[in-house]
Design goal:
The chain is mainly alpha-helical. The protein has 24 helices and no strands.
Length: 561
């Protein structure tokens, strides 16, 4: 194989190992962090500074600014986060992502293989899921540096190539060209961390004199600025098909990085001198990797300090660029909050699932109320709309179930999250059942009208009373799931006993009416069917109340802020 192909394949292979290690480390860190991710997200308040801290911490844990950005866009789209909050999260994510470059700047080439072995050993021997995740994180950390080392080895021949050094000389002396190269690299790789790692490695290669960097810090900074612009494409792609606020969040991310590039591009040499002053001293090829990492950190901290003071101005800019249009009627059967792009972050995705289930519960409340009206007035013409709502509830349930199935198949959940997901599926089933059974009760009323069944006024009044009790039980169960401490779950469950007593009373009363000739015997089966449906609705309400007593499940129905 000739030298050129070896270099190309070596770069591609090293980059592949690096990105695989980075993604694996992100996934395993997330598993190891588990529910701590939600604690970090709980920092979100109306205070932009805390939002910046939350964004930085989340990105430091996930080792991916793109993951944090996509998560923020998903939350804005779901209405769990305001636009200013999301923008502050984006600012923090830009600081958090600089941790990767700082880690890469450490020279641990002599310890790569022992790190990989230790990580493998821990993940192979450990029995607990958390310990396995920690071992896999260490293993992935080693792979990350193995990829960097591979890229560094194949880059060495390039330093002695006159054609290549001349090309790099042009890039180093024309900042705009450097910005273009950095942007293009990140657009292709879709990872600013990867392209910055390549930049750090390449800049560490010695020039013709064997002492100074082939690129130099002043030549690396414009490429670094371009890397920051290129990473915004991930946010823009994530916002496609989302709400206007989600698009505004993505645009704010672009404005942040583009404005920083436009500002710093005029001060490349003074900025490089500052970074060299505050960074460790030594031969350039030995310290330039740390200098690039520091330049990345200082750039993002500076821009964050500028924009966090102007966050209201940023909101006005994005609101002007993407103004509010006419409201579009949403199909109730389609999910409003679910976002496929954050399935890889289960702690966040489960929040959206809970939000969607709560939205569906509001649809079920309306369905139950409509059923009570139909039972009271016997207006069969209203049944068509109710049946349509029942179909919408069923379709929405299928969409939520598919989303939860995708979460399971993604393989990113901890055992605890998997257990909590099962609880959410349990809740979803009972909420959907309430809607389906209420439609069935209304259909029984239609059957009564079509077959001219004549139930006594007493029977119809008792039926309405049972349905009203069920409606109250369901409403209180949902409140309890949302964390409403005013709901006394013990009393709620006891209402089921009252419904059972009322059920027994109605059955006895019906038999007595049949014996006295007030009701026909052939009405027993349809009337008993209605009572059976009511009994099943009561069971669903009790099931929801039982879940509400479980604090872990309850937390998933709380908003993140």
């Amino acid at each position: 194989m000739n030298e050129k192909l070896q270099i190309i394949f070596g770069l591609l292979g090293g980059l592949a190992v690096f990105i695989y290690g980075m993604n694996m480390m992100s996934e395993c860190l997330q598993k190891a962090a588990g529910e701590k991710m939600k604690s970090i997200l709980a920092l979100l308040t109306k205070n932009p500074v805390l939002g910046v801290i939350a964004g930085a911490l989340t990105t430091a844990v996930l080792q991916s600014s793109s993951a944090t950005t996509v998560m923020a866009i998903g939350f804005v789209s779901a209405g769990l986060m305001t636009l200013p909050q999301a923008i502050s999260i984006i600012f923090g994510a830009n600081i958090g992502t600089t941790m990767t470059a700082q880690i890469i700047a450490f020279k641990i080439s002599d310890y790569i293989y022992i790190i990989i072995f230790i990580g493998f050993l821990i993940s192979f021997i450990a029995k607990s899921e958390k310990a396995k995740s920690i071992g896999q994180t260490i293993f992935a950390f080693g792979l990350l540096f193995l990829g960097i080392e591979t890229m560094g080895d194949v880059m060495k021949p390039l330093a002695s190539s006159p054609v290549f050094t001349n090309l790099i000389g042009k890039v180093a002396h024309i900042p705009v060209l450097g910005v273009f190269v950095g942007t293009l690299m990140t657009l292709v790789v879709q990872s600013s961390s990867a392209t910055i790692a390549v930049l750090q490695n390449f800049a560490s290669q010695p020039g013709p004199d064997g002492v100074t960097s082939i690129l130099g810090l002043a030549g690396a900074i414009p490429i670094l600025l371009g890397d920051n612009i290129g990473t915004t494409i991930t946010a823009l792609l994530a916002s496609i098909g989302q709400t206007k606020d989600a698009k505004r969040t993505a645009v704010a991310h672009c404005i942040f990085n583009i404005s920083g590039c436009l500002l710093f591009i005029w001060f490349v040499k003074p900025f490089a001198a500052l970074i060299q002053y505050i960074s460790p001293k030594g031969p350039e090829i030995q310290v330039i990797s740390r200098q690039i990492a520091n330049a990345h950190t200082i750039f993002n901290i500076t821009m964050t300090l500028i924009w966090v003071c102007l966050i209201n101005f940023m909101v006005k800019i994005v609101m002007t660029l993407i103004p509010d249009g006419k409201a579009v009627d949403m199909d109730p059967a389609k999910p409003v909050f679910l976002d496929d792009k954050i399935i890889s972050q289960p702690a966040a995705a489960l929040q959206l699932v809970a939000k969607e289930i709560l939205r569906m519960s509001e649809m079920v409340k309306v369905a139950v109320g409509e059923t009570i009206t139909i039972v009271k007035t016997e207006e069969i013409s209203r049944l068509e709309d109710l049946e349509e709502k029942g179909q919408q509830i069923k379709t929405l349930t299928e969409s939520i179930t598919e989303y939860l199935a995708a979460l399971f198949s993604a393989g990113t959940m901890t055992e605890q999250q998997a257990s909590q997901t099962a609880s959410l599926m349990y809740v979803l089933s009972d909420v959907e059942r309430m809607g389906t059974l209420s439609v069935e009760v209304a259909r029984c009323v239609r059957e009564k009208a079509e077959n001219k069944y004549k139930y006594t006024p007493e029977a119809m009044d008792e039926l309405q009373k049972s349905l009203r009790t069920l409606a109250k039980m369901f409403e209180d169960s949902i409140k309890a799931l949302q964390g409403d401490e005013s709901v006394q779950i013990e009393k709620l469950i006891k209402r089921k006993d009252k419904i059972m007593d009322l059920d027994l009373k109605m059955r006895k009363a019906h038999v007595q009416r049949v014996n006295k000739g007030k009701c026909k015997a052939d009405l027993t089966a349809p009337f008993t069917n209605i009572l059976h449906l009511i009994d099943r609705m009561g069971n669903s309400c009790v099931n929801l109340a039982d879940v509400a007593t479980n604090e872990i499940s309850l937390n998933y129905f709380m908003t993140i802020n």
